[in-house]
Structures are given as structure tokens and as C-alpha cells.
Amino acid sequence: xxxxxxxxxxxxxxxxxxxxxxxxxxxxxxxxxxxxxxxxxxxxxxxxxxxxxxxxxxxxxxxxxxxxxxxxxxxxxxxxxxxxxxxxxxxxxxxxxxxxxxxxxxxxxxxxxxxxxxxxxxxxxxxxxxxxxxxxxxxxxxxxxxxxxxxxxxxxxxxxxxxxxxxxxxxxxxxxxxxxxxxxxxxxxxxxxxxxxxxxxxxxxxxxxxxxxxxxxxxxxxxxxxxxxxxxxxxxxxxxxxxxxxxxxxxxxxxxxxxxxxxxxxxxxxxxxxxxxxxxxxxxxxxxxxxxxxxxxxxxxxxxxxx
Length: 307
Prior knowledge:
The chain has eight helices and 18 strands. With about 300 residues, it is an alpha+beta fold. The strands form five sheets. Strands 7, 8, 9, 10, 12 and 14 form a six-stranded antiparallel sheet that branches. It has helices at about 65-70, 100-110, 215-230, 235-240, 250-255, 260-275, 275-290, 290-300; strands spanning about 10-15, 25-35, 35-40, 45, 50-55, 60-65, 75-85, 90-95, 120, 125-130, 135-140, 145, 150, 165, 175-180, 185-190, 195, 200. α4 (about 235-240) crosses α7.
């Protein structure tokens, strides 16, 4: 477009955006000079045009601000609350609105976990989250497992259900990061977990009684009883196969045995050979599929004493 300087003082750029009270500033004008460009603030924005005052003819273009800038106005103040389920060795992570009542939340978590020991983890919790947006939680160690991989932030909180669960393999300090899809990290915390297993404070352990992860400890203490007391193996084998502790051929070998006792023994022999991580997964799977068996065995577990 060409013309004498000063003959045109204003341009109107047509657009098809739906303009509402919260996104009137989402459209902007780009002024291009050579290989450089700058963002210009429009004079005003109507339902059909973006207007800009000009002093001469140059290259102009209409652009829309990044979605994150627009969404920042819609974010709500939120909290990340952490509860450690001591008996199941699971860290429950809840994404909640900032106005949640803490006493009611703690009471609800106690009711959800029935008689199990649950500890509230005090840490930095404030953040800003977008309702219905997807988030993923990561932890610094690959030994822990996070489920699910992604979850939406629901600003309704009637049931206080965990948004994420971290299945712990040890009691070492853990780093947690919450990421919004496409927009990076929105929350971070470094946490020293209380050292509890089966209700016993593991900070009391000494070099003569080293810490053993709960799944491995359970496996070795109760292996003989598990040979005769494991129930339906089908769901257990399915879960072990899905988390790649067993492959299809190993599952077939277990199922080919004639009696339930022989099948149990075959599975336990495989887990013994596979080592600690496999035994931790087995413990988690058994808690899911036959938690009353685990509870019955663990209630007879004696406290280890320091030498």
C-alpha cells in the first residue's frame, strides 16, 4: 500500500475473533521493518476490526497473543496438598482450589484411607492452575512410579480424591514438579519424607540394621506363607505383566503348573531371581488385588530391634 505521508492516519484490520470481556487484549498489531518487528498496542478493538493510528505506510500484520498470556487471566489460585499413606507406601498428591478447608480435607483423607496411617506433608503448596487443563507430575527418581501420567485440574473438590499417586520405593528425599502441558513447570517442591514403614520410625535404624524397602522386606519375611496363601493369580499376573515384571512366556510358565501351590512357588521363585524392584512391584500389585491378605500378614510383623 502506497500513498503520500500524512494522507492516512488510521488503519482498521479485519478479524474474526469472538471478543468478550476477558480477551479484548488478545489481538495485537505487528510492525515489520526489514528483519525486525515490534508489537504495537491497538487503539481500540471492535467486534470486526482492530484499529491502529499510523504516521506512514509500512508492513503491518495482525497477530494473536500466545495462549498462555491469554490464559493467565483465567488461572485460579490453587494448592498442591500431599498426604503420605504409610501402610501402602503411597504419596497422594491433590490439586485443589486455594479456598479448600484444611481441617475438612484432613478428616476426609482419614475417612478415605480407613484405618491406615496417613501423614500430612507440610511443604510449599501455592500455585496458579487452569481449570480443566491437563497437568503431569514428575519426581526426581525413576525408582518411584507416578500414576496417572497426566490428569486434569478439577476446581470442584467434593470428594477430595488424589489427582496423582506416587508409589514409593524408598524413603530418600524426593523432588516433585508439576507441569502444565505446553507451558512448563507451575509448581516444585523438595520433600524429606517421614521415615515410616509398618508404623515404625526408620530413623531409628543403625548400620547393623540397614533399611530394606517395604516390598522387599514383605516378600522375604512372608515368602513361605505366600506359597500357600496367594489367592486368585489371574489378576496378579495380569498386573505384573502390564508393568513388565513378567513377560508372556514367564506368565505361561506359571500358569502351566498343575496345582495352585506349584503356581505360587513358580511365581515367587521368579520374583526372587528378579530382585528388589520386581519385589516392590509385586508388593504394590498384591496390595491392589488382595489387600486383606497383606494386612493379615503384616499385623503379625514384629518390630526390628537395633543391635
